[in-house]
Amino acid sequence: KNSKKEMLLILTCDLEHNSFQCKWNSKRISDYVKVSHLEKDVTNFFESSKMDVLILQYQHKTNDLTQFFQIKCILESAHSLYWNKSNNETPANEKLVVLIVHNVMGQKDPFPIIFSQKWKLAFVDSLTSRSSIDLKDLTMSDQTAMIYQYPSFEQ
């Protein structure tokens, strides 16, 4: 299994934090006014030789998963185009796409676990961990190993 051709979906019950957004240079889906703006950012990411990680944060609020599937489709399409440009040559840069889904604790309709071949799934209780999390490690490691590697989280 070639993990570099996967994307990372992180489920968390942690809130969206500005400090996390600044530290990891992530973007909130809610900040996009139009779908075309998200599509443009995703396209620019895959066309750029300077960027290797795209982190998007999505706040799950209702039982309607339409927006989530739209985001997922945009990311998967761009990701596939990037890796399938040429059957014989490997892209110059490895690209890591991370979609963080914030699930509100006690929510009536929590985010369902959706398995997909393109996505590596991880649950991170707190994104404001005292020890830094290497996102590339999450794509390549066994989830059980990750629990022991990053044991200390802020309360």
Structural notes for this entry:
There is one protein chain. With 155 residues, the protein is α/β, with parallel strands linked by helices. It has one domain (3-149). The chain is 33% helix and 19% strand. The protein is built from five helices and five strands. It has helices at residues 18-24, 35-47, 66-83, 135-140, 143-149; strands at 7-12, 27-28, 53-60, 96-103, 119-123. A five-stranded parallel sheet has the order 2-3-4-1-5. Strand 3, helix 3 (66-83) and strand 4 (96-103) form a beta-alpha-beta unit. The longest helix is centred in the middle third of the chain and has 18 residues, at 66-83. It is globular. The model is unreliable at 143-155 (pLDDT under 50).
Topology readout:
Layout: E1 7-12, H1 18-24, E2 27-28, H2 35-47, E3 53-60, H3 66-83, E4 96-103, E5 119-123, H4 135-140, H5 143-149
Parallel strand pairs: 1-4, 1-5, 2-3, 3-4
Helix pairs in contact: 2-3
